[in-house]
Amino acid sequence: MIDREALKAEIIARRGYWHPFHEGLLELAPEFLQTYLHFQDAPARSGHLEPKVCEFIYIAIDGAVSHLYERGLRRHIEDALRLGATKEEVLQVIMLATCAEGQIPNALGHAILMEEARTASAPLTPEQQRRKDAYVEKTGTWPQAGDAIVSLAPQFAEGFLGYGEVAWTVGPLAPKVKAFIGLAVCASPALLHEAGMRQHIRQALDHGATKEEISDVLALAIAIAIHTCTNAVPALVEAVRALPPSS
Fold it and tell me: Is residue 181 part of a domain?
């Protein structure tokens, strides 16, 4: 038998807030609510990641254009600042999340274009190769289909590559934390971009991240799955209350 009042107090203590979906689950399915708490809170309890870095992951997945959950985004920005993050760190998280989702459609689309056109990317000119080398030197990576984009759309390529360079270099975040942000966006249930996950996991490992840290980033990234309950449980409670009384 679950002690509902104790569970409510524990959630408020660990999560820092009480939401209508918590109330609905507490009333209708306290077992699920208790399981959610263990599922959601495990990375914070493991201690592998700094608390503010956990908030950075939440900011990235809530702020990514594939999800855009404003209520959570605002809450986690406030929590990150409360935990000692600087505005420059939070801004770089926002830029990295923007860049990650801004680059993926073009990278994937150009890769498909080259496959369907049954052609290979033209060899890069010396100038294009220098541009590629400069990008790799700054970021440590090269986008999927980057050669094709540079060859086919040189005017666009400068902005495409600049997105990645500026987001990576303008800001104080450690390299492995920057890789965590890219991984979180790609691992989000709203996106699930396998090639990006592989790239950012390798990048994080290359910058000294541990397997345990990366595992916790993945656990945090899937946290937005609960937003089904965030929206649906209050709607269910309201709909049930609106039903006419049974005769």
Answer: yes
Euclidean distance between CA atoms 144 and 213, whole angstroms? 25
Residue pLDDT, tens place only, 95-137? 999 999 988 998 899 999 999 999 887 899 999 999 999 999 9
Residue 116 CB neighbours (<10 A): 8
Report the alpha-carbon distance of residue 98 to residue 80 in Å, rounded. Answer: 18
- CA angle 70/73/79 to nearest 5° reads 145
Q: Model's pTM, two decimal places?
A: 0.92
Q: Where are the beta strands (DSSP E) in 176-239?
A: none
Residues shown for the chain: 247
Give every residue of the chain whose pLDDT is below 50, as ranges: none
Pairwise CA distance, residues 27 & 152, whole Å: 58
Number of independent structural domains in the chain: 1
- Is 41 domain-assigned? no
Angle between helices 51-63 and 87-116 (to 10 degrees): 50
- Is residue 182 situated within a structural domain? yes
- Encode 188-204: b = buried (16+ Cβ within 10 Å), e = exposed: bebbebeebbebbbebb
Q: For residue 103, what is the domain's CATH number?
A: 1.20.1290.10
**69 within some domain:** yes
> For residue 112, what are the domain limits?
50-220
